[in-house]
From TrEMBL:
One Pfam family of this chain: Zip
Source species: Ursus maritimus
PANTHER family listed in its UniProt record: ZINC TRANSPORTER ZIP2, ZINC/IRON TRANSPORTER
Protein name as catalogued: Zinc transporter ZIP2 isoform X1
Superkingdom of the organism of origin: Eukaryota
Gene Ontology MF terms: zinc ion transmembrane transporter activity
Residue spans crossing the bilayer: 47-74, 86-106, 149-166, 206-226, 232-252, 264-285, 297-318, 330-349
Assigned keywords, A-Z: Membrane, Transmembrane, Transmembrane helix
Membrane topology type: Multi-pass membrane protein
Subcellular localization(s) per the UniProt record: Membrane
Amino acid sequence: MTVSRDARAAAAVVRVNGWYTYSRSGFHFQDRCGLCFSWIPRMEPLLGVKIGCLFALLVLTLVCGLIPICFKWFQIDAATGRHRRVLSLLGCASAGVFLGAGLMHMTAEALEGIDSEIQKFKMQNRTEKEGNASDDAGSAQMEYPYGELIISLGFFFVFFLESLALQCCPGAAGESPVQEEWSGTHVLELHSHGSPHLPSKRPLRALVLLLSLSFHSVFEGLAVGLQPTVATAVQLCLAVLAHKGLVVFGVGLRLVQIGTGSRWATLSILSLALMSPMGLVLGLAVTRGDPKGGQGLAQAVLEGVAAGTFLYVTFLEILPRELAGPEAPLAKWGCVATGFAFMAFIALWA
C-alpha cells in the first residue's frame, strides 16, 4: 500500500482496494461492507520528537537538581579546609551561571519578545490617519523602552514584597548583605563557621528564585512545543537542556547552602522539573488549537516580570553572598566569569 505525500500532508482519506483507509490520525482497516473493525494509531514525527523532549527536560532537571541535595559532599556544614574552599568557588561559578542566565537568556528573550509584540500590537491598531505629526509621535512611542520598564517592574515587585515582609515580620526574609555588615553579622560566617542561624533567614528570596525560574521554565517548554519542524524543535531543546542543567544544578546547590531541608528541597526541584514539560504540553495544545489574540503579548510581559525577579535575586542575594567569601578575589572572579561564559556560549544556539 502506498500513500502519496500530498494526501498525507492534506490528511486526505485514501482507499486502497477497498480495504484500508488512511487519515491524519492513523490507518483504518475496513471490511468489504465499509465497516471499520480495527484501528492502527499513527504518531507524527514532530509529535514524537516533542514527547521525547518532554521526558528529556523532566529527567535532566531532576538529575541535575537532586545531585547537590542527595550527596553530602555539597553541604558546607560538613566541609573543612580545601573541601570548603572548593564548595565556595563552586558557589561562585553557580553565581556566574545565574548571572549569565539572567542577562544572556531571560532578559534578552524578554526584551525581544516584548518589543516584537508591542510593534505587532501597534501595527494592528494603526489608524488610517498618517500625517507627519502622527508619524513622529508614533516613532517616539516605538522608541520608548517598554521591555526595560516591564523588567524593572518585576525587579521592584520583588523588592516591595521583601520590604513588606521585613516591615511586617522583621527577620522573616533575612537581612541583606549590607544590613548584615552593619549589624556585625558577616556573610563570611556561612563559609567559615557554618552558622546555624543564618541559612534559615532567606526563605522569601529562595521562593522568589523558584517562582521566577518556574515562569521561565514554562516559557522555555512552550517555545519547544511551538516549534513547527523537527530540526528546530531538536535544536532548541538541546539548547534548553544545556542551559537548564546548569541553572537547576545551581538551584539545588543554593537550596543546600541556605540550609533547606532535604524534603523541601526535593519537592522544590520536583515542582521546578514539571514546569518545562507543562509548558511544552501547552505549546502542543496551542499548535493544535486556534491562536488567540494578545496571547503573545501576555507571554512576553510575564517573561519580562520573571526576568526582573530573577535579576533581583541574582544581584542582591546570590552574587553579594558569594563574593563576600574569604577566598582570593581573583579566584572568585575567575569562577564567576567561567559560569557566565558557559551561559554566553550556550546563548549562541538558544
